Amino acid sequence: MNAVQMQSARKMKRAQTILFFIVLLGLVIWSSIGAEFSFGALFSGIGESFRFIFFDFLPPDFSSLSQLIEPALQTLYMSVVAMVIGSVIAGMLSFLAAATTSPHPYLQIGVRAATSLFRNIPVLIWTILLVAAFGLGAVVGTMSLILISIGMLTRSFAEVLEEIDMGQVEAVRAAGGSYFQVLSQAVVPQFLPGFIGWSLYNFEINVRASTIVGMVGGGGLGFILQSKLKLFQYQEASMAVLLVLVIVLIVEMITNRVRERII
């Protein structure tokens, strides 16, 4: 490529970059108008937000801590059950969803499509639908978390299976191993570290999501938080938020330590 061609290519690239930013700016302006967003409205509400947080919401009412222990434990129970059941079901489905282990391509497509439905519908929507069918309570929250866990973990586990060393798989097949022997001797040992790591990560996500689930009737700390906000008991709600933060940090610390030791 001569100097003239290089200069022409640079000019074209510069023009494409300028055009990209013009289109991006136009998209931002158009979206802001559609969303009725403005910096004036944003800054006008900052003072009121600070007043609410520092005068109404804070400090937390520590005397209400004893009332929050049981809902906090319920949040953990929901997260653990959803993680275990979701991991087991997703683990079995992932062998059907991964290209390296699925017995048939059509079965792979069907499983991926079904679990994609679970994953792409937000947990909030699942909870609202299940509350309408089963009523309020931790059972509904647990069911919502299980559905989301299955959707997320099936895809994650399938990707782990698709990244395994196929040399070990071919070696077992060449030795005359059956489909289940290939899975047990060549696939599962490589799959286990990813299975444990993603399951623990899902537990962290469930703890966070359980608060949102609870606010629409799924039980746990989220339900208590929503109740306190509706009753304008902001300092007790602040204590619930603080407790959620502490639980999330503790769970994250524990799961990180477990991952470091096991994986």
TrEMBL record:
Name assigned to this protein: Phosphonate transport system permease protein
Subcellular location per the Swiss-Prot or TrEMBL entry: Cell membrane
Residues that span the membrane, as ranges: 50-69, 76-98, 123-148, 205-225, 237-255
Keywords: Cell membrane, Membrane, Transmembrane, Transmembrane helix, Transport
UniProt-listed NCBIfam families: PhnE (TIGR01097)
Every ABC transmembrane type-1 domain range: 72-255
Protein family according to the UniProt entry: Belongs to the binding-protein-dependent transport system permease family.
Membrane topology summary: Multi-pass membrane protein
PANTHER family per the UniProt record, alphabetical: ABC TRANSPORT SYSTEM PERMEASE PROTEIN P69, PHOSPHONATES TRANSPORT SYSTEM PERMEASE PROTEIN
Keyword Cytoplasm recorded: no
Domain of life: Bacteria
Principal localisation: membrane
InterPro entries reported in the protein's UniProt record: MetI-like, MetI-like_sf, PhnE/PtxC
Keyword Transport (UniProt): yes
Coiled coil (residue ranges): none
